[in-house]
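fyi for ur records
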Amino acid sequence: MNVVDTAIDAVKILEPRVFEDERGCFFESFNLRRFRECVDPSVEFVQDNHSVSNRGVLRGLHFQASHPQGKLVRVVAGAVFDVAVDIRRDSPHFGQWVGETLSAENRRQLWVPGGFAHGFLTLSDTAHFLYKTTEYYYPDDERCIVWDDTDIAIEWPMDADPVLSDKDRQAPTLAQQFDTP
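which gave:
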């Protein structure tokens, strides 16, 4: 596994070592020992999730307030533009974002630690998005930040308005969520 730094040091891109031949390919999609050596020695994953989305669907920006979830995300069919927004109030990167195209073809994964809001835009006709979490999902603890917050200014790669859930459409801005000027 190759670990690539991003503009926000806590967020990492993971590239698996892929073995290909005329039969197809093989790669190790996750190895706890290697992940702890290269990314985070204290991580413990407790839940796996699988999301299926159609082209133009934007999910996010989501986070849990009292039970922050670290997420190791990847795409096994299709492609998405995946985004992590730093919401750690004491971070020098507070309110900044990083984005990465994840696809079944490039096999890249993104490590989004706790303390980040997360979202993605589906770029292909359909995308199967898998992610491991370091904390269980608590519906009452879930919060959102609106996807087009001008203070964050995410450069989503889209030509038309995204398909959103009511929850995501009505989400507050980062400033409203964190009572910042």
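The helical segments are 32-38, 166-169, 174-178. thats all i got for now
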